[in-house]
Amino acid sequence: MLDLVNRSCLITGGSKGIGLAIAARFARAGATCTLIARHERPLRDAISVLAESGQQDHRFLVGDVGDKGLWEQAIKMNPGIDILVNSAGQSQTSLLLRTPIQEIDDVIRANLLGTIYGTKFYLKEMTRARRGCIINISSVLATTGGAGSSVYAASKSGLHGFVKSIAKEASRFNVRINNILPGYIETEMTAVIRSSTKAETLPNPPLGRFGTAAEIADAAYYLATNDYVTGTDLIVDGGYAIR
Ligand SMILES: NC(=O)c1ccc[n+]([C@@H]2O[C@H](COP(=O)([O-])OP(=O)(O)OC[C@H]3O[C@@H](n4cnc5c(N)ncnc54)[C@H](OP(=O)(O)O)[C@@H]3O)[C@@H](O)[C@H]2O)c1
């Protein structure tokens, strides 16, 4: 189904993992994508993946989502977008007492501030156009917490109040905003956990496996195409949060 024909999307963290899977899903549905990440090579590779959908007009922008200058550039390059996906994110795998201050700043900047900046920069255009959809990739750890993930969980649970508030501010302009809360998903972000943890101590959700990036992309497609959903936290975690 080509439900996203003539829609333009901007996807942060679109060079890899969940962001790339969402871009590929949207491109297959007819959308034109602009991808953002800090490294150019993976972005170029990702654009080649998207081109397999048949369209050739996907683009990329290199930069850090925690840098306001990147968003000024993004708005200039791509002023009117229909869908913003904030997927860029960094993990943390250390107890707070052992986490360097620089890492704390980096995680909050990428996961929370980056999403707030992106939303602020694009909300103006979306409210003016009287349509828009914003999808943030949060985490199930925002609700469960996790030892070794305190700053990461704080950055993601900040998105909960943010989305509720922006949904209230923007609904009258027909702009929707939602979070997806993935559980453990097979991407580079979880590669270290998967390779260095014994099978019996790996996170094991009731459905008995890690999820795939494509399963998160399906959730993003649902949020992009259902015009009656806003202000939600959509959990896609194999049942991990039930415990
Ligand atoms: N994988 C999971 O199990 C899981 C579970 C719950 C939530 N999530 C969330 O899902 C999102 C995507 O994760 P993933 O698993 O797809 O991770 P990934 O495979 O490591 O990809 C992360 C992407 O974000 C980009 N990125 C990271 N920091 C950035 C920054 N400051 N500015 C711009 N781009 C940045 C990376 O490219 P560059 O390095 O080139 O910048 C890459 O494109 C994250 O927000 C993560 O917290 C993941």
From TrEMBL:
InterPro entries: KR_dom (IPR057326), NAD(P)-bd_dom_sf (IPR036291), Sc_DH/Rdtase_CS (IPR020904), SDR_fam (IPR002347). It comes from the Eukaryota. Pfam families: adh_short. This is Ketoreductase domain-containing protein. Keywords: NADP, Oxidoreductase. Belongs to the short-chain dehydrogenases/reductases (SDR) family. GO terms for molecular function: oxidoreductase activity, acting on the CH-OH group of donors, NAD or NADP as acceptor; quinone binding. GO terms for biological process: fatty acid biosynthetic process. Residues 7-183 form the Ketoreductase domain.
